[in-house]
Automatic annotation (TrEMBL), chain A:
It comes from the Bacteria. It comes from Pontixanthobacter rizhaonensis. This is (2Fe-2S)-binding protein. GO terms for molecular function: 2 iron, 2 sulfur cluster binding; metal ion binding; oxidoreductase activity. Pfam families: Fer2, Fer2_2. Keywords: 2Fe-2S, Iron, Iron-sulfur, Metal-binding, Oxidoreductase.
TrEMBL record, chain B:
It comes from Pontixanthobacter rizhaonensis. Gene3D superfamilies: Aldehyde oxidase/xanthine dehydrogenase, a/b hammerhead (3.90.1170.50), Aldehyde oxidase/xanthine dehydrogenase, molybdopterin binding domain (3.30.365.10). Pfam families: MoCoBD_1, MoCoBD_2. This is Xanthine dehydrogenase family protein molybdopterin-binding subunit. SUPFAM superfamilies: Molybdenum cofactor-binding domain (SSF56003). PROSITE patterns: TAT. Keywords: Membrane, Transmembrane, Transmembrane helix. The keyword Cytoplasm does not apply. NCBIfam families: TAT_signal_seq. GO terms for molecular function: oxidoreductase activity. InterPro entries: Ald_Oxase/Xan_DH_a/b, AldOxase/xan_DH_MoCoBD1, AldOxase/xan_DH_MoCoBD2, AldOxase/xan_DH_Mopterin-bd_sf, N-heterocyclic_Hydroxylase, OxRdtase_Mopterin-bd_su_IorB, TAT_signal, TAT_signal_bac_arc. Signal peptide: none annotated. Coiled coil: none annotated.
Amino acid sequence: MLSISVNGKPEELDVDPAMPILWAVREQLGLTGTKFGCGIAQCGACTVHLDGQPVRSCSTPISAADGKAITTIEGIAEADGTLSKVQQAWISEQVPQCGYCQSGQIMSATALLKETPNPTDEQIDAAMKGNVCRCGMYGRIRKAIKVAAGSEPSGSQEASA
Amino acid sequence: MSDPVSEKPERSRAAKWTRRGFIGAGAIAGGALVVGVAVRSGNPVGKLKGIVAQGEGEALVNAWVKIGSDNLVTAIVPHCEMGQGANSTIAQMLADEMDVNWENVRVMDAPADGNYVSQHAVRTFVGPGTLPDRPNQVSFMEPTYDGLFTQIGKLAGAYITGGSSSVRSTGQNGMRIAGAAAREMLVASAAKEWGVPAAEITTQNATVIHAASGRSEPYSAFAAAAAEQDLPRAPRIKTVDEYKLMGTPAPRKDIPSKVDGTAIFGVDAGPEGENLRYAAVKASPVVGGAIASMDASAAKEMRGVLQILNMGDFVAVVADSYWQAQRALNTIKITYTESENDSADTATMFAGFTKALDEAGDSGGNSKADYGDAVGALADAVTKVEAEYKVPFLAHATMEPMNCTAWVRDGKCDIWTGTQVPLMARDGAAEGAGVSADDVTMHSVLLGGGFGRRLTPEYTNQAARLAKATGYPIKMIWSREEDTAQDFYRPADISRFTGGLDENGKVICWNNVHCTEDEPPEAPLVEFYDIANVSVRNAEVEWPVRLGAWRSVAHSQHGFFVESFVDELAAAAGKDPVEFRRELLKNSPRHLAVLNGAAEMAGWGSPLPEGHGRGIALARSFNSIVAEVAEVDMTGETPKVTKVYCCVDAGFAMNPDGLKAQMESGIIYGLTAAMYDEITIKDGAVEQSNFHDYKMMRMDDAPDIAVQIINGAPDNLGGAGEPGLPPAAPAVTNAIFAATGQRIRELPISKHFA
């Protein structure tokens, strides 16, 4: 039996300790916002936070989370439901296309901004290059990170209109 | 009965426009007609109503749009949302015509029900009594009445999302007319209720207003009565100067759910409260191969494994968890039956291409375009230019691997899956489950990318067979490796050109032969360039792999071929690539404006740092024209694309931010393939398997992209999802040539810098 805090809630999980976090949260806990993309830590769609650090949940066994805290996309809004600054910026910059990779993108960006509140382009590259967006919304992701950081004003829509 | 339209001063012009619109709608937006007429009194509206009207107090005005008692207006959209944002945009078009504010609009996927789209549906819902006993109804479609049946029947789904068609067909010809019709029916209802002339009633923000008497009511007050109204003869469509929502960057309706984890994709969906079982599958890696034998001795001992099935054409492991199923499947030793494709490999296939092209020569093969005398004119050329280009197979690599959840019981089948063709997917599931198509319920979900891959939904058949064989509700998920191995690939191709220039460097002839069938047929054509003698042909070849539609389809190859060769002709003429194209575009003003737009954005001609270069390319696809200038930095070990300037004319940008996003997306998709990717075949099987050997462009390699929009033809809309892609590769290879003199004639570019 594993004891894990998931999005602030204590959970007891009776699963194969080798099961990746990805499948434990999706199938056992019904938290389907975390996505399967490649299974080999190449695409970042499965990114969650383990004690605040971004990890690829498809390649991290649930046993590694025993006694620790997992945060998924479902758990980063404020307690009252207010979206996080990163989530709000993702909406204001109209980032998602298909949206499948965006949980992972948002988790990577959230971790980046926690460590580096005002990241340079190089720091954004380094933190985000593990997350593939097949719809190619990299420019919008970069912009949204800067908007969330407060270093750039919102406005992709005005710029294009 | 009063005819509100007849009092409109612009009736005749509007009616003419509408007639044209509906003629176009017959092919793709067939649903518009079916559901539009569904509101006719006496029509079998009941069945449709049960499908789309859910809440208490919801009245079906017509099946493109419903109005709730809360005055929320739901647009029922016959396309799948796979990222292109078109569902939101076509709802925007409906809302504008209907005079509904964006905040009051909801979007709902049309159910995958034949009543929306099939020929049977048209006959059932449109046919009976439409003509001649109710001649004032839908009379604008009379000229194409018979044609519509044929066209709709031919289309494997009017319910199809592909061909960058949503906005320009469904939106323009279906949604706008439906919105205008709905508004007029509401006005007519209010006029009757209030006893005032319809012409005195105005509408705004989902409200009907009679200013003279100071009365106003929300649309919902008249929704039920409107549903009893005759469908207007020719609903008046707004002119561009009247647009309120159209042409604005209204925020997409689907985005909020995509930032908080609540968006439901196929892989997330399934029956509520049921004990799902999970399946991992593996089919023969060689086309035509089947399962000969398997040794599952290790797998059946593994935790969570419930069943191991030899399904003939694939092996499946069913377990309590997908991870357990896949892990067990990976231990099974499978042997495959022999296939005629066992020895297929890419090199042999390309050798076959070369042979076919040699045989076609300068005038053989299937003619795609033939005007002037391309062969004869070459004799007069002062300069002859020849070039051969080559592109590989490509996989779609949607972020969400193929998957399908199926549940078969009591002669019924439920399917949860992302597909671009729900009706085809439904039919495949029906066959797999052994039930009739009417007994299959398709549950609508988001698609984690489509790009053409989800136009071939064979996975619904596979999942339905598994569900039937096991009795469980089954969630089948393909591994990334299976997804890469079992794709329907963008065809590889070799394309040969011979061109001639006169003494002034003007192109006098263009002769091209290539191997792929061209879908759409205009993909290899260059009619917008001023060249008098043109021959375009293809040579038939054999394919050892499955082929499919890949974003921008044949434009993805020919954009590279054509614009590379134009660049080579410019170089041979000693002319600047932009100036050279300007001369070729003298009879194509919209193309020229787009070319000039991109060149201006990029500061074409201004100095660049040492080792950097600029290249331009132009393509028209899906009725949109796009030019792109790429800047490359060649000072490192491998080329780096630093900037892409994109100018697009899609007729009119219904949602400018949506169009811009689609250009950005198409450019990155095209650059990913151009820079890194090829699918190769060895011993009949695909050699690539996952993102380590089929690379994706990432944040650190993605260029800055700037997009400028020209609204060059407001009544002649173009697509958005695909047209950004075709110019991306040649813009980069032309830039590499400008920087280094190295002409890249084979993709991917990375091959030349290994």
